[in-house]
Amino acid sequence: MDKHRKATYHLWTFAMSKLISSFGSSVYGFGMSLYILNVTGSATGFAINLLCNTLPRAILAPFAGTLADRKSKKKIVLISQGGASVIVLSLLGFSFIQELYVSAIYTTTALLSICSTFTSITLTSSITQLFNQEKLQKAMAFQQASISLSTIGGPIVGGALFGLFSMKVFLLIHISSYIIAILLEATMNFTLYRKQPFSKPSPFRQSLLEGLRYVKSNENLLRLFCTGLVVNFFAVSLVVGLPFIAVEKLRIQSAHFGIIEGTFAAGMLVTSIYFSIRKSFRSPLLLTKWGIVVASFIMVMTTLPLFIPLSYGGNVSFYMVIGLIYGITLTFVNTPLGVLLQNVIEDEVKGRVFGILEMMAQGLSPLGMIIYGLALDTIGPGWSIIPSSFCMTAFTLLLLNQKRLKYIPTSYSSIS
């Protein structure tokens, strides 16, 4: 099989692998989130589970990226996916012995987060070695489309299953998705477009420091990474706040809330399909900047039903529209930026750079989850989300200011 045909095979296999594994994770995550909310009845309990998912990623991301640059990417992906399967299988076995404790779910979430950190960063750093330049933007768009499809189906299936079946069904779906993803990824050649053999890696600590120096020496990369740090902190207010508003405050049923989350993914899906057929982006950083500003405005809008009472159907319809627009907006932020970074970061340091990006993007999220979990329970969603939205806009405009952006060319070399 020649390289072109193999790259085409990679395109579909990669998309299917992401679709299946993301679908399993989406069903599992949605079901567990509702389970925790029902058991604890508090936004703090929900936030703790998010914290268990985010904190390991923030801590381990640079180490995962360094390992991805030093070892076989294929082996790392398969081993980490296999480890995740064993973890979920263990929780399933525990559920046959006694009813699931919330603490057991928190522990499982943290362990799965560790595995997914190594999987996601390694896969992201492998993209330019799996695909040629012509298929790069399409691969990124297909990846987003696969995740979006699973995010549409996951909450809908999870909402329909919740209350009808035990949590064992959610665990079985999750395990099955991991196994199928492993079988698909095992057939891929992770060095198909490797430009040249990498030089012998430096010692682990030195390799990690080299990645930090690479980012520090590039002002534009550093600005983007700092933007990710503060934006993810303030965006946590919506991640924790929206389920709390919908389920606890407005009493929206789990099945209907699943549909609301599905519309968010539908917006991402439609935009991803558009990106898969359009030409390369000319001003990716400007798209990122104004996309974040629009997302901030949408965050404010999510609190509207708290101040202007609507009927039950009105609340569900309102959040479906909000979810659709928010999904479109985030795709206009993430996809152009992702393609840009894939083009300008050298393959030899991709794992470390994406690991540092993950660390900085997630770095303040754990603190945010604790703060917003407590804030939602004490001062309420309105006073938590609205000020966060204004702060997110202010920091974005400051870090990605027009004076700095106007000196950046519109080509993919712009960030160098």
UniProtKB/TrEMBL annotation:
<dbReference type="InterPro" id="IPR036259">
    <property type="entry name" value="MFS_trans_sf"/>
</dbReference>
<feature type="transmembrane region" description="Helical">
    <location>
        <begin position="353"/>
        <end position="375"/>
    </location>
</feature>
<dbReference type="InterPro" id="IPR011701">
    <property type="entry name" value="MFS"/>
</dbReference>
<keyword id="KW-0812">Transmembrane</keyword>
<feature type="transmembrane region" description="Helical">
    <location>
        <begin position="43"/>
        <end position="64"/>
    </location>
</feature>
<keyword id="KW-1003">Cell membrane</keyword>
<keyword id="KW-1133">Transmembrane helix</keyword>
<feature type="transmembrane region" description="Helical">
    <location>
        <begin position="76"/>
        <end position="97"/>
    </location>
</feature>
<feature type="transmembrane region" description="Helical">
    <location>
        <begin position="318"/>
        <end position="341"/>
    </location>
</feature>
<feature type="transmembrane region" description="Helical">
    <location>
        <begin position="257"/>
        <end position="277"/>
    </location>
</feature>
<feature type="transmembrane region" description="Helical">
    <location>
        <begin position="289"/>
        <end position="312"/>
    </location>
</feature>
<protein>
    <submittedName>
        <fullName>MFS transporter</fullName>
    </submittedName>
</protein>
<keyword id="KW-0472">Membrane</keyword>
<dbReference type="Pfam" id="PF07690">
    <property type="entry name" value="MFS_1"/>
</dbReference>
<keyword id="KW-0813">Transport</keyword>
<feature type="transmembrane region" description="Helical">
    <location>
        <begin position="145"/>
        <end position="165"/>
    </location>
</feature>
<feature type="transmembrane region" description="Helical">
    <location>
        <begin position="103"/>
        <end position="124"/>
    </location>
</feature>
<feature type="transmembrane region" description="Helical">
    <location>
        <begin position="171"/>
        <end position="192"/>
    </location>
</feature>
<feature type="transmembrane region" description="Helical">
    <location>
        <begin position="381"/>
        <end position="400"/>
    </location>
</feature>
<feature type="transmembrane region" description="Helical">
    <location>
        <begin position="221"/>
        <end position="245"/>
    </location>
</feature>
<feature type="transmembrane region" description="Helical">
    <location>
        <begin position="12"/>
        <end position="37"/>
    </location>
</feature>
